[in-house]
From TrEMBL:
<dbReference type="Pfam" id="PF07687">
    <property type="entry name" value="M20_dimer"/>
</dbReference>
<dbReference type="GO" id="GO:0070573">
    <property type="term" value="F:metallodipeptidase activity"/>
</dbReference>
<dbReference type="InterPro" id="IPR051458">
    <property type="entry name" value="Cyt/Met_Dipeptidase"/>
</dbReference>
<keyword id="KW-0645">Protease</keyword>
<feature type="binding site">
    <location>
        <position position="228"/>
    </location>
    <ligand>
        <name>substrate</name>
    </ligand>
</feature>
<feature type="binding site" description="in other chain">
    <location>
        <position position="343"/>
    </location>
    <ligand>
        <name>substrate</name>
    </ligand>
</feature>
<feature type="binding site">
    <location>
        <position position="132"/>
    </location>
    <ligand>
        <name>Mn(2+) 1</name>
    </ligand>
</feature>
<feature type="binding site">
    <location>
        <position position="330"/>
    </location>
    <ligand>
        <name>substrate</name>
    </ligand>
</feature>
<dbReference type="GO" id="GO:0046872">
    <property type="term" value="F:metal ion binding"/>
</dbReference>
<keyword id="KW-0479">Metal-binding</keyword>
<feature type="binding site" description="in other chain">
    <location>
        <position position="417"/>
    </location>
    <ligand>
        <name>substrate</name>
    </ligand>
</feature>
<feature type="site" description="Important for catalytic activity">
    <location>
        <position position="228"/>
    </location>
</feature>
<feature type="active site">
    <location>
        <position position="100"/>
    </location>
</feature>
<dbReference type="GO" id="GO:0006508">
    <property type="term" value="P:proteolysis"/>
</dbReference>
<keyword id="KW-0464">Manganese</keyword>
<feature type="binding site">
    <location>
        <position position="132"/>
    </location>
    <ligand>
        <name>Mn(2+) 2</name>
    </ligand>
</feature>
<protein>
    <recommendedName>
        <fullName>Peptidase M20 dimerisation domain-containing protein</fullName>
    </recommendedName>
</protein>
Length: 479
């Protein structure tokens, strides 16, 4: 065991109730970034964090980000940055979290008041922001306090970057990180983000990859206005018929993408990577439970997880301009826009993907010989991210999980994206680790969001232990 962990762990247990009260105070501030009326509360939450950090002896700054684009009457909440420790002999870890939350109203179906932390007999702590992301942010503050009270030297220099607009697109944050990467954040040896979730409920995970997303529109138009099928059916070429044909040529029932050349961009599965999968605690029943049916594409866990994390997928989302109400309207839509997206993985470069998509959609449409016109374009794209799970940053976290929870962590990727991850990696050039505190059942963004007491208290131990192992880990930059 890393030295000094035992007194630290004991102190975390002794302070558990204090830490829960800290979470209660934070949850009570409705820092909803999406709502104008709550903007003052988002500021209040930033002050709360700044005060807590200052009280513990950190140097804290609240950096303004200016006016909110498109809502110029609103000031963006500040990025709360802090430095705890400035010892050149120690490593420096940059941690990120966010202090704003998703909206929450009783009318949405909450069983308890969303901004009133409610702990039930199972130790589930319900409240908006409990798991996303106030619990994890406070975990870092708790770790500092427990070290001080236990009289254990803090093992690293800590840099904090806590933002207040994450749930509203992280307005202004990328520019800030890029500007500070070689200034305030320049000493960072590695980055740790605690803002995602375990794969299940029992076993912690470390996350080393996220898929990207390219989102497309296919617009087909012909007639000058919507037509009636009784009058024009059979005599006018119908945009919807063309669009259905195009959309049907994108992906098959096995999830195979039908766009020529696309699958060739995907990095092959390595032997080292393959070995990470069998240990992951996940079952097909977990999948069936979360999709609410047994309509899976694959029958095995490994294939399912790989399909979700490390292979691309294509989903058809909807058709704009199509009749979608109940009933039997006999309209022929004049213009329809099909929407689909591709979740991208290494080594799919966005512009290469776009070109293959455009070419394929055009080829398919041209083969129809339709007199309608078609346009295909990318609405937005976000890049995938993958880090080395064998880097010292991950090895340290892995040892910390073993120490606190007695198990090897699941090494996971996620199918969705967390854009700030890639911003930190590109701006600092350092390894980024995703070290989640909450579990898969926490319901971030939905009603009855919660964080289990175990995840919060053992999670605080985990964050502290991670920093101790970081201080000890040989600095291999192994890829
Ligand atoms: Zn979050």
């Amino acid at each position: 065991m890393a030295p000094n962990l035992d007194p630290y762990f004991k102190q975390v247990d002794a302070l558990a109730d204090t830490f829960i009260e800290r979470l209660r105070a934070a949850v009570a501030i409705p820092s909803v970034s999406a709502s104008d009326e709550n903007r003052k509360d988002v500021f209040r939450m930033g002050d709360f964090l700044a005060d807590e950090l200052t009280r513990l002896g950190a140097e804290v700054e609240k950096r303004p980000l200016g006016k909110q684009p498109g809502k110029e009457h609103l000031e963006l909440p500040p990025v709360v940055i802090a430095r705890y420790g400035n010892d050149k002999k120690k490593r420096t870890i940059l941690v990120y979290g966010h202090y704003d939350v998703q909206p929450a109203l009783m009318e949405d179906g909450w069983a308890t008041k969303p901004f009133d932390l409610t702990v039930d007999e199972k130790g589930r702590m319900f409240g908006r922001g409990s798991t996303d992301d106030k619990g994890p942010v406070l975990g870092w503050i708790n770790a500092i306090e427990a070290h001080q009270k236990a009289g254990v030297e803090f093992p690293v220099n800590l840099l904090c970057c806590f933002e207040g607009m994450e749930e509203y697109g992280s307005e202004g944050l990328d520019d800030f990180i890029n500007a500070e990467a070689k200034k305030y954040f320049k000493d960072a040896d590695a980055v740790c983000i605690s803002d995602n979730y375990w794969l299940g409920t029992e076993k912690p995970c470390l996350t080393y990859g996220l898929r990207g997303c390219n989102y497309y529109s296919v617009e087909i138009k012909g007639p000058a206005q919507d037509l009636h099928s009784g009058v024009f059916g059979g005599s006018a070429q119908e945009p919807m018929t063309d669009l259905m044909h195009v959309l049907s040529k994108l992906v098959d029932q096995k999830g195979q993408i039908l766009i020529p050349g696309l699958n060739e961009l995907v990095a092959p599965v390595t032997e080292d990577e393959k070995k990470l999968y069998p240990n992951i605690s996940y079952t097909m029943d977990n999948l069936y439970e979360s999709i609410g049916s047994k309509t899976s594409i694959f029958e095995t866990k490994d294939e399912t997880l790989m399909a979700r994390w490390r292979f691309p997928s294509l989903s058809v989302h909807g058709v704009e301009g199509a009749f979608s109400q109940p009933g039997a309207k006999t309209v022929i839509p004049a213009k329809v826009i099909g929407k689909f997206s591709i979740r991208t993985v290494p080594n799919m470069e966005s512009n290469e993907v776009n070109e293959l998509v455009y070419k394929h959609v055009k080829d398919v449409f041209n083969k129809l010989g339709s007199k309608n016109s078609m346009n295909v374009y990318c609405q937005h794209d976000g890049k995938w991210w993958v880090a080395s799970p064998f880097h010292w940053n991950f090895q340290a976290a892995s040892k910390a999980v073993k120490q606190v929870f007695g198990v090897e962590p699941d090494m996971t990727r996620e199918g969705g994206s967390i854009p700030v991850t890639i911003t930190f990696e590109q701006a600092t050039g350092k390894n980024v680790l995703l070290l989640p505190m909450g579990s898969s059942t926490d319901g971030a963004h939905s009603i009855n969001e919660k964080l289990d007491r175990r995840n919060y208290i053992e999670g605080t131990k985990l964050l502290g232990a991670y920093l101790h192992y970081v201080a000890e880990e040989p600095m291999n930059e192994k890829k």
